[in-house]
Amino acid sequence: MLKRKNAALQLGQFLALVASLLIVGQIGYTLYQGSPLCLNGGCKVVEKLTRVSPLVFNGVGLFFFQLVYWGLRSARGEMRRLPQFIRTVLLAGLGVEAVLVSFQYLVAQAFCAYCVGILAFVVLLNLLLGWKQIVPGFLVFATAALAFASLDLARNPVNGEQAFTAGVFASRPGLLKYPQHYLFYASTCDHCERVIASLKTNGRATVAFNPIDQVTSIDLPQVIVNAGYSPSLNKNLLTALGIEEIPVLMTRTPEGWTIRRGEAAILAYLGTPESTPASGQSSVLPGTAPPSGIPGLDGGDGCQVSTDCTSGASGQSTVP
């Protein structure tokens, strides 16, 4: 029994050291490249939705694992010599990881592979200390996760630019930089396809594309693709705003936001030339909403957000 405990402590030291080296590598990569190493698209989504710098997260993580490493080392292979604060630190680590994982699942709706790897190290370190650590560890993790899940985080989805930028799959710069347009669409919606197709002959508008489903490409020239976007954020945003049909064009002007729904209303607005200064510069007067008599302003020529309305999607904007 004593040997098993010694082996567990030695394995714990090894895991804490490996985790520390992994974080040091991530910090070095971030300092050299200017951005952290993303192992999957979920990493980029989570990074955009967090206000704390990745360097701060990694710095705290490095301190955590170094504290655990030296604490386990001080036990000299005997569980009875293990400092009590190590158990407390590991429980605190589980609580923090529960919040971070819940954030990824409930808010970002995308998992960061690097973050999940760090979670695995924290869980394993707790498991190695036996049942006296496993039981309270489970309670701490479950309590923190349930507490986070009980929060209503979707009441104010348009808080800053994060709800839009994290959901942008692609952007097409136009002749006119302003106003800023965000087109919410689905790859299976024929109405959305026709709106996107109209932009092939309309190079004036600068448009960002926010799909509510997973897409891989868009049939437009000169687009800048961002593979690490979150379609769930776009869908949740429309749901929170009470919008049940797509396509939706959200336009930001100095006066605020304007929302146009339906194929006809969007095509009518985008087909109206913007007023430009006589000097020919690219700055424009803010666009105004179309008259209420334009068909489609109140929806009716769109697809339901919650269903696949295609009768054979044209496939113009996406590919399988």
From TrEMBL:
<feature type="transmembrane region" description="Helical">
    <location>
        <begin position="84"/>
        <end position="101"/>
    </location>
</feature>
<feature type="region of interest" description="Disordered">
    <location>
        <begin position="277"/>
        <end position="320"/>
    </location>
</feature>
<feature type="transmembrane region" description="Helical">
    <location>
        <begin position="107"/>
        <end position="127"/>
    </location>
</feature>
<feature type="compositionally biased region" description="Polar residues">
    <location>
        <begin position="304"/>
        <end position="320"/>
    </location>
</feature>
<keyword id="KW-0812">Transmembrane</keyword>
<protein>
    <recommendedName>
        <fullName>Vitamin K epoxide reductase domain-containing protein</fullName>
    </recommendedName>
</protein>
<feature type="transmembrane region" description="Helical">
    <location>
        <begin position="12"/>
        <end position="32"/>
    </location>
</feature>
<keyword id="KW-1133">Transmembrane helix</keyword>
<feature type="transmembrane region" description="Helical">
    <location>
        <begin position="134"/>
        <end position="151"/>
    </location>
</feature>
<dbReference type="InterPro" id="IPR038354">
    <property type="entry name" value="VKOR_sf"/>
</dbReference>
<feature type="transmembrane region" description="Helical">
    <location>
        <begin position="52"/>
        <end position="72"/>
    </location>
</feature>
<keyword id="KW-0472">Membrane</keyword>
